[in-house]
């Protein structure tokens, strides 16, 4: 959803996909504008500093991606400094939520894309599932595509045994076999999803890929990082 919020002289334009742990924002004041602000589960805070027509706004936006039944929300915390029409200096402080939205049961933390062949791509969605009264460890949904056609899909989580790739094909593209390994992130090491597999397109020689297709830093759980 796209929403606008006016706070004094400052206009915020927000783009939110309730299924994804991401908020994109831009703001404007007078003749000045700022774009490209993005808040994710990994980097939930963005700072800004904007000046126009004798006024200056400085502060931050913080996204809280919560678990159901709590609502997720975007907190704004900033000061507006400047000169009024009577030429007197002034300062205004604002702290409050710009928007709230329903927290999804499963939240998409990040997306990754890795080409394996000119016509074969693997995509990864890092997922934060919510299950009441149980652990909510991250999982990954791994999809192999021939152009826009889905070849096969896997759900991978932190286990001692790698997930074996099935032999499958669509059109000229064939997945001949391999494995997916999920290493969870900790405060000491980054998480990683690794692929070791062999792929072929048409009569070209088989191509072997061994390496990372996604990596991420340790992220606090949604329940631990939510003001409610």
Distance between the termini: 21 Å
Describe the global form: elongated
Helix content: under 10%
- What's the alpha carbon Rg, rounded to whole Å? 22 Å
Domains counted in the coordinates: how many?
2
Key features of this structure:
228 residues, mainly beta, 2 domains, five-stranded antiparallel sheet, 17 strands
Short structural description:
By secondary structure, the chain is mostly beta strands. Helix content is about 0%, strand content about 65%. Strands 13, 14, 15, 16 and 17 form a 5-stranded antiparallel sheet that branches. Strands 1-2-3-4 form a 4-stranded antiparallel sheet, with no helix packed on it.
Structure overview:
The structure is a single chain. The chain starts with a strand and ends in a 12-residue tail after the last strand. Helix content is 0%, strand content 66%. 25% of the residues are buried. It contains no helices and 17 strands. The chain folds into 2 domains: 2-102, no CATH class; 106-223, no CATH class. By secondary structure, the chain is mainly β. It has strands at residues 2-7, 10-16, 22-29, 32-40, 45-52, 55-64, 71-83, 89-102, 106-117, 120-129, 139-146, 149-156, 163-165, 168-170, 173-183, 191-201, 207-216. Strands 13, 14, 15, 16 and 17 form a 5-stranded antiparallel beta sheet that branches.
SSE blueprint:
Elements: E1 2-7, E2 10-16, E3 22-29, E4 32-40, E5 45-52, E6 55-64, E7 71-83, E8 89-102, E9 106-117, E10 120-129, E11 139-146, E12 149-156, E13 163-165, E14 168-170, E15 173-183, E16 191-201, E17 207-216
Antiparallel strand pairs: 1-2, 2-3, 3-4, 5-6, 6-7, 7-8, 9-10, 10-11, 11-12, 13-15, 14-15, 15-16, 16-17
């Amino acid at each position: 959803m796209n929403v606008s919020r006016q706070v004094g002289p400052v206009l915020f334009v927000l783009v939110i996909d309730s299924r994804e742990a991401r908020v994109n924002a831009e703001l404007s004041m007078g003749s000045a504008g700022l774009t490209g602000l993005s808040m994710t589960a990994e980097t939930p805070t963005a700072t800004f500093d904007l000046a126009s027509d004798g006024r200056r706004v400085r502060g931050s936006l913080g996204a809280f991606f919560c678990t159901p039944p709590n609502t997720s929300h975007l907190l704004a915390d900033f000061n507006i400094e400047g000169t009024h029409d009577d030429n007197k200096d002034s300062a205004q402080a604002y702290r409050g939520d710009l928007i709230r939205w329903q927290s999804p049961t499963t939240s998409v933390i990040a997306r990754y894309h890795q080409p394996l062949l000119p016509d074969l791509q693997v995509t990864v969605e890092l997922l934060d599932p919510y299950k009441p009264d149980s652990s909510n460890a991250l999982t990954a949904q791994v999809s192999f595509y021939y152009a826009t056609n889905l070849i096969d899909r896997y759900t991978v989580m932190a286990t001692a045994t790698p997930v074996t790739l099935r032999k499958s094909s669509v059109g000229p593209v064939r997945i001949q076999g391999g494995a997916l390994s999920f290493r969870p992130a900790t405060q000491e090491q980054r998480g990683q999803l690794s692929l070791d597999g062999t792929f072929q397109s048409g009569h070209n020689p088989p191509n072997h890929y061994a390496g990372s297709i996604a990596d991420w830093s340790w992220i606090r759980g949604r329940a631990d990082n939510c003001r409610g």
